[in-house]
């Protein structure tokens, strides 16, 4: 299957450089060797030019570290890069990993390249890299969208109001972008000496050699990499997927996919996930419809938000005006409980089940969606001002969740404050922003959830660290 034209953008009009040694692919968003549209385009171009492909990755280290990333995130990323390096070698594609910004690595290696292929993410830092590369690299640059089902600008040319406004737009395009992607045969293997880089054969050693924030430890619950992502997807679809439609709101039911860390790090393609879910023998029509709503509509609503709102991490820009107004009107309402960051992180609040959910997040890097909503709404309730609540929810979200620092992180934290939502009945502190009471936990088997979290936390503490 050819790559859909809407996924491909020329970032400049520079010609192909005839004396280049390879086609260069900067792997940044799509950290995988399979079902990777940008990589397959690079292979296709290289075959056409009788050249090999060289893929590269820029690892941000030390004072240049990726904003808010810590050992938990880097361990997952490096496990994934070890998979990539192994699989690319099998395919005959070169791979260079360097401690530098992605833009620096691409600009340096592009000096010997014929053309440069980029994948595509929507965070501000990623857009800055693309702009930097576009200014400094004097060769043809092509960008390929592979980490959403419907390319963001094809789905909509503006910031969408809510899921209900994006849903019909996505539906219109969906079948045009749900195609399998075959792996092209590499005609010219990258055999020459590879440009200098660091060895990722032992990801634990690579992690130990980095200068980074180690105050948040790697987790055992999720091992990074495309191999693990595939294994989890297949196991999930063969078993727990059945019942997703009815059970996805129950954290104790083990009904969800846990794909979010793998999607965040680009270790699996959302197109591949949707195609596999559609084919799954286990899921009912309702399970499939509900899953598609989350992986495509909700996830791509987040991409739409960060793409069209420049300062998506700021309260003033991310939270809609009606919600800021009502929250400001209630900013002086007395708070029954107030907690600082330390008390929240340690799970020392008066709310037992909130503390349990916080333990899951802190110790294992994940929390079920239903509890994330409850968790975030309570932080709003327990903070001195909505601005303070917004900033600390984002800070904790991005620090402890493996899937943090994602378009989904910024969008869902803003959802707590009214984004993509509508006014509800007026309440103290919340004004007309949707409130979530302790009663919402009655819908779940909280005791079973607590027992599951206890087991998960014990497993994290057993034996030497991962
Ligand atoms: C306060 C708050 C913070 C959140 N922070 C993050 C975050 O940092 N990173 C993150 O990826 N998600 C975040 N979410 C969204 C959602 O909770 C997670 O994506 C989901 O719980 C991941 O688990 P799963 O992969 O098992 O989901 P599944 O139910 O199996 O869904 C499959 C995929 O669909 C997407 N999805 C599911 N629910 C949502 C949703 N509500 N919005 C957008 N996409 C969704 C995810 O990509 C997910 O992996 C947050 C939600 C809230 C309310």
Strand count, sense and barrel status of the largest sheet are: 6 strands, mixed
| Overall pLDDT score | 96
Low-confidence stretches: none
Termini gap: 39 Å
Tally the structural domains: 3
Number of strands: 6
Query: What is the strand content?
Result: 5-15%
Task: Please identify the structural class as seen in this structure.
Answer: alpha/beta
- CATH architecture annotation of the largest domain: 3-Layer(aba) Sandwich
- What is the CATH T-level topology of the largest domain? Rossmann fold
Helicity, as a percent range: 40-55%
Contiguous helical run count: 20
CATH class of the largest domain: Alpha Beta
Quick one: CATH superfamily of the largest domain? HUPs
Q: Major sheet: order of its strands?
A: 1-6-5-2-3-4
Oligomer class: single chain
Provide structural commentary.
The chain folds into 3 domains: 1-147, 3-Layer(aba) Sandwich (Rossmann fold), CATH 3.40.50; 148-185 and 225-308, Serine Threonine Protein Phosphatase 5, Tetratricopeptide repeat; 315-458, DNA Cyclobutane Dipyrimidine Photolyase, subunit A, domain 3. Helix content is 47%, strand content 6%. The chain contains 20 helices and 6 strands. The chain has helices at residues 37-49, 71-91, 102-109, 124-136, 152-155, 163-173, 203-208, 226-238, 244-247, 260-264, 270-279, 285-308, 315-318, 321-329, 341-346, 352-364, 369-381, 386-400, 407-416, 446-461; strands at 8-10, 22-26, 53-58, 94-98, 113-118, 140-144. Helix 3 (102-109) packs parallel to helix 4 and helix 6 (163-173) packs across helix 12. The mean pLDDT is 96.
């Amino acid at each position: 299957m050819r790559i859909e034209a809407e996924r491909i953008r020329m970032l400049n009009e520079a010609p192909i450089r005839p004396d280049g040694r390879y086609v260069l692919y900067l792997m940044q968003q799509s950290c995988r060797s399979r079902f990777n549209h940008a990589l397959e385009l690079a292979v296709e171009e290289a075959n056409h030019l009788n050249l090999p492909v060289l893929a590269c990755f820029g690892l941000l280290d030390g004072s240049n570290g990726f904003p808010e990333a810590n050992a938990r995130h880097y361990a997952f990323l490096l496990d994934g890069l070890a998979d990539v390096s192994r699989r690319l070698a099998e395919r005959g594609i070169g791979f260079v990993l360097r401690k530098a910004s992605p833009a620096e690595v691409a600009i340096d290696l592009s000096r010997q390249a014929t053309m440069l292929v980029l994948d595509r993410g929507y965070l501000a830092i990623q857009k800055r890299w693309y702009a930097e590369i576009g200014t400094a690299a004097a060769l043809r640059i092509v960008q390929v969208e592979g980490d959403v089902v419907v390319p963001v600008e094809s789905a909509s040319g503006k910031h969408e109001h809510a899921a209900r406004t994006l849903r019909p737009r996505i539906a219109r395009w969906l079948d045009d972008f749900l195609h399998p992607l075959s792996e092209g045969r590499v005609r010219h293997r990258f055999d020459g000496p590879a440009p200098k880089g660091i060895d990722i054969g032992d990801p634990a050693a690579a992690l130990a050699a980095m200068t980074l924030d180690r105050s948040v430890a790697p987790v055992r619950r999720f091992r990074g990499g495309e191999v693990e992502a595939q294994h989890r997807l297949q196991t999930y679809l063969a078993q727990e997927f059945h019942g997703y439609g009815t059970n996805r709101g129950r954290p104790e039911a083990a009904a969800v996919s846990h794909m979010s860390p793998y999607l965040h790090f680009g270790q699996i393609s959302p197109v591949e996930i949707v195609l596999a879910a559609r084919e799954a023998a286990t899921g009912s029509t309702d399970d499939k419809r509900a899953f598609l709503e989350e992986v495509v509509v909700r996830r791509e609503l987040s991409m739409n938000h960060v793409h069209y709102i420049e300062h998506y991490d700021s309260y003033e820009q991310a939270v809609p005006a009606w919600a800021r107004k009502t929250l400001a009107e209630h900013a002086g309402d007395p708070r029954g409980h107030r907690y600082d960051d330390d008390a929240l992180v340690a799970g020392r609040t008066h709310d037992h089940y909130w503390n349990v959910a916080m333990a899951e997040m802190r110790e294992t890097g994940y929390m079920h969606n239903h509890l994330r909503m409850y968790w975030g709404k309570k932080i709003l309730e327990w903070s001195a001002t909505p601005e303070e609540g917004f900033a600390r929810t984002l800070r904790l979200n991005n620090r402890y969740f493996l899937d943090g620092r994602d378009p989904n992180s910024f969008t869902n934290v803003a959802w707590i404050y009214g984004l993509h939502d509508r006014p509800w009945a007026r309440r103290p502190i919340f004004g007309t922003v949707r409130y979530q009471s302790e009663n919402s936990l009655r819908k779940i088997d909280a005791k079973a959830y607590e027992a599951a979290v206890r087991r998960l936390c014990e497993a994290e503490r057993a034996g030497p660290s991962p």
